Fold this sequence. Notes:
Blueprint: E1 2-7, H1 11-22, E2 27-30, H2 39-42, H3 57-81, E3 92-95, H4 100-110, E4 115-118, H5 119-125, E5 135-139, H6 147-159, E6 164-167, E7 172-178, E8 181-187, E9 190-192, E10 194-199, H7 205-211, E11 214-215, E12 219-229, E13 238-241, E14 244-248, E15 254-257, H8 271-284, E16 292-303, E17 310-313, E18 320-324, H9 330-345, E19 364-365
Parallel strand pairs: 1-2, 1-10, 2-6, 3-13, 10-18
Antiparallel strand pairs: 3-5, 4-5, 7-8, 8-9, 11-19, 12-15, 12-16, 13-14, 14-15, 17-18
Organism: Halomonas litopenaei
Pathway: Cofactor biosynthesis; thiamine diphosphate biosynthesis
InterPro entries: FAD-dep_OxRdtase, FAD/NAD-bd_sf, Gly_oxidase_ThiO
Amino acid sequence: xxxxxxxxxxxxxxxxxxxxxxxxxxxxxxxxxxxxxxxxxxxxxxxxxxxxxxxxxxxxxxxxxxxxxxxxxxxxxxxxxxxxxxxxxxxxxxxxxxxxxxxxxxxxxxxxxxxxxxxxxxxxxxxxxxxxxxxxxxxxxxxxxxxxxxxxxxxxxxxxxxxxxxxxxxxxxxxxxxxxxxxxxxxxxxxxxxxxxxxxxxxxxxxxxxxxxxxxxxxxxxxxxxxxxxxxxxxxxxxxxxxxxxxxxxxxxxxxxxxxxxxxxxxxxxxxxxxxxxxxxxxxxxxxxxxxxxxxxxxxxxxxxxxxxxxxxxxxxxxxxxxxxxxxxxxxxxxxxxxxxxxxxxxxxxxxxxxxxxxxxxxxxxxxx
Length: 369
């Protein structure tokens, strides 16, 4: 029996496991597919909410803490695994921001470097950006990470830790209750048990919570993206316009995203989305029109009503916990949200006030019958 059983092998699950293992605990990870193969793989890897001034303070507090943690995490994983998560801090250009005043006020309030820049700076920072925009907002501190490589590095590190067991292609089918505790977790590969159980399965978390008698308002929200095979240097930093973005990788490839679709658990792609993403990307960087689209895919974000994740102990349970509902910001918030939960699991002083993220008052427990 492990000290902890983590259900979900995405970025939240694997970062939770790494921190618990670092603290000397045994952890079993149960993943219905392959670790890091769902939303954590499918996203863009921007280490900030797209328009941070439009988010509530609970999201902003997690994002701010996480942003400072990523450089150290990326370096650690590179040294320990040889897999480079490709953390890049080259800033972000916002083109055509309609609430610029609000953005600048937010930046002053939180002490974030964000400034209005003119055509000369735009051309210097991103020479291949469209030429008909003469003003933009510039955030020099924004970073991005190559999330598939981050997931590969996390998995590789955990594989080498003797206190960690990864059980992939393993589906949870139910929970056996004994008083206020999860006594047994049923899976299609047999029963498992642990002192503490954590649900952090992204868009699938609501189904797992339902098995535990909880109504967790997390739903799948599909996002489609495309990848251009571009020459190195065509795009140097993240550029955002009208809610769509382009993200460069170290080898020159450029991601463009993304759609927002309520389509249940359907991860299919379609030509309309591909065309829309292509037009958005080429409107930002016209030269992308000459580049091949190398890949087109979709992922499922764990949508929640207000975008504030559910982090903490499940109502009515002594040893069941949840970390889910990060919506578009799972990768952005992962270091802080996992640290916040681990602090509570281990009885440590939490990095920030956990109250806004608690399940009590936000998640209903169904009567036992």
